[in-house]
Amino acid sequence: MTEPAGGTEAELLAVRRQKLDQLRADGVEPFPHAFPDVEPIGDVRAAHAGLEDGAETDSTHRVAGRLAARRGQGKMAFLDLVDRSGRIQLQAKLDVLGPELMERLLGLDLGDLLGIDGTAFMSRRGELTLRVDGFTVLAKSLRPPPDKHAGLQDVETRFRRRELDLIANEESRAIFLTRAKVISTVRRMLDDDGFVEVETPMLQPLYGGAMARPFVTHHNQLDRDFYLRIATELYLKRCIVGGLERVYELGKDFRNEGVSFKHNPEFTMIEWYEAYADYQDAARRLEAIVGAVAEAVGYTGELEFGAPWRRVTFVGAIRDETGIDILEHRDAAALRTAVERSERVDLPTADLTWPQLVDDLLSKYVEPTLQQPTLVMDYPVEISPFAKAHRSEPGLTERFEAFCGGMEIANAFTELNDPDVQRERFEAQVRLAGEGDEEAQPYDEVFVQAMEHGMPPTGGLGLGIDRLVMLMTGQRSIREVVLFPAMRD
Fold it and tell me: What share of the chain is helix, strand, coil (3-state, %, to 5)?
């Protein structure tokens, strides 16, 4: 029984269902409980690297994976089996398996999951092959896989049905294996340097730590609204107050903002905080971690991650790209007028606050120009409510953002640790909210009271994992590096 060529979906599904019934009728369990002692295909291939063409071995191996191709019939056939580590050729011979098992193996469908016990040899064409000594059906696939030649090309389908993308496209599997290596490398770097990984609430009674709109949800038992966190910052600083001194958290944040090539409403961040350090220390640690990540994943692109990264000032970068010195226009009306009169800038200005105007100038005129790793230093206090005042530049703070590939990847401060100044910054944010800034920080009295117990000098940084993976894999869309991105209906 074979699948009808060009058959309808209903016909294809019906044939596979009939094969499922036949397996059960033959006494074969098509969905067994386990298949122990499996070796990754990549390990099997590595164990026989250098084997000469045509060489036989007495090495037996047990592998498992998805049936991806089949060639030949009768007395001998070849099949391809794929797992996450690679692909291996299988040789099925009638004189080894016998007529019944040979017929059953060749009657299986592409996409079926199989366990194979076999003996390794190198074909005359130089292809490592397992001669099938025995096989076990591990899961009967009741739906056909994506076309084995064309793969899965439709972008919308690839993102909505990532499992099919992973089955069909080796490149997609490679991206997510790289992502795992990125995360493990970042964690290892911090763990080895004495940082403690902690977990803080995702459901928060008050959001904070970033300029963003939150998602709101309701807890029925407590009869109160909670916010999905937009950042871990304020809770991690409370850990610093409590004496943990070096902490980090790697996890999901949620921001109720637009979807774009670099924005997903649910994204992965790592934030770390280090007592007795400042933003220059955070910069050096960032350079070291990203450099280690690039080495770990074998990055070979055009970006140069070696330290030190280029440094420019926030004010100078905007002035260079737009001709506007924002420090000469320190209120919304003055800056609005400067923008409207500029021949190099085309921005809507109506009803925007000074921080919103400044942020637009940076994101639309400076950020796209920053392709190689660059630190933009020393941000105005109005857009940095948690950063310590600059020790030598009035009106600025010790804050930087890291940019690469034309997008922001990290944000860092010498953390504000004076509770009275923090209270003033919160009050300023409340005023901005009153002027219409939906992303202004809400007043968090509990956080201020925590600081009143004494917070040591601290350097902190947040690094976007998704964007870092984009850089390391050469992807231009965040949806390529998030397994199941948010999609419109």
Answer: 35, 25, 40
